[in-house]
Amino acid sequence: xxxxxxxxxxxxxxxxxxxxxxxxxxxxxxxxxxxxxxxxxxxxxxxxxxxxxxxxxxxxxxxxxxxxxxxxxxxxxxxxxxxxxxxxxxxxxxxxxxxxxxxxxxxxxxxxxxxxxxxxxxxxxxxxxxxxxxxxxxxxxxxxxxxxxxxxxxxxxxxxxxxxxxxxxxxxxxxxxxxxxxxxxxxxxxxxxxxxxxxxxxxxxxxxxxxxxxxxxxxxxxxxxxxxxxxxxxxxxxxxxxxxxxxxxxxxxxxxxxxxxxxxxxxxxxxxxxxxxxxxxxxxxxxxxxxxxxxxxxxxxxxxxxxxxxxxxxxxxxxxxxxxxxxxxxxxxxxxxxxxxxxxxxxxxxxxxxxxxxxxxxxxxxxxxxxxxxxxxxxxxxxxxxxxxxxxxxxxx
Length: 397
What we know:
This protein has 397 residues and is mostly beta strands.
């Protein structure tokens, strides 16, 4: 019997199973959708696309290579230097008293009530929507008491009032001329020695002229002139009429820092001229450091009560003034005419409340030292009086 081989049968069955498996796989792929092959990575497999000049996305595909990472660049630094619009404007308020030198304009003195057109706008400053011809009605009371009963003590009380008239566009500029008449009553008690003598009262009547032109956006000036009569009205002569002046140049070094240099003419017997030099630094709208000799002032915003902003400040000044008087001569046993200087130094701390309707009220307490009374008559020795305290209150509207 011939032996039958089953190998062709098994080969045919194997081919049939493979064909059935391939057919099943094709149907499954057709049911799920065709999957595109992954692109080849590397420079050889990079896809080439058409160049689009308006596209903001990378147009050369992704490039990946072991050990390579795309460079990252930090964002450009943001400058902390404020724009030019933050330059402060030139001040336009007059000094309160040339007899004691140019006091700091702020916070004790009011901010400029007239804001001229300037290329650089002020920072966060309350703008008055109207102008008044009569500006800055002011009153101030200063009290230096006797602290003991020594004969070389001196008590003074000063009552000062003033008002400012505004004349805009002075000399065809955008800055006004400020004209301020003022009057001060001085009440004196002491000294009680048998050599020196002072009347019980004296007066100061003056007229201020102030103009602060802006020469360039970074350079402006503070100019002032005062003429006044300083006497007890018992002795009036050529020494009773005194002329005083102020000239200070200001250079804005940065938007927050201004260099100041100039002089103030005080027209006293002992001292005629004082230098004015210093630095004004306003790091923000709530801080003002006026480090200027001879009248420095450091100011800082404290709090708000209702619609009133409250500032605290510390300052210093070269005080008092010069008058012609009639005094009693203990040698001649008669009244004689003379002129005196009273000089002192003062430091103080204070609080000031400001209101958007222009009203500003302030109160100060301080210490007064190196007080000297100088006489024009050569036969009367000068007198050094005792140190004392200072209380001062006032308002501007």
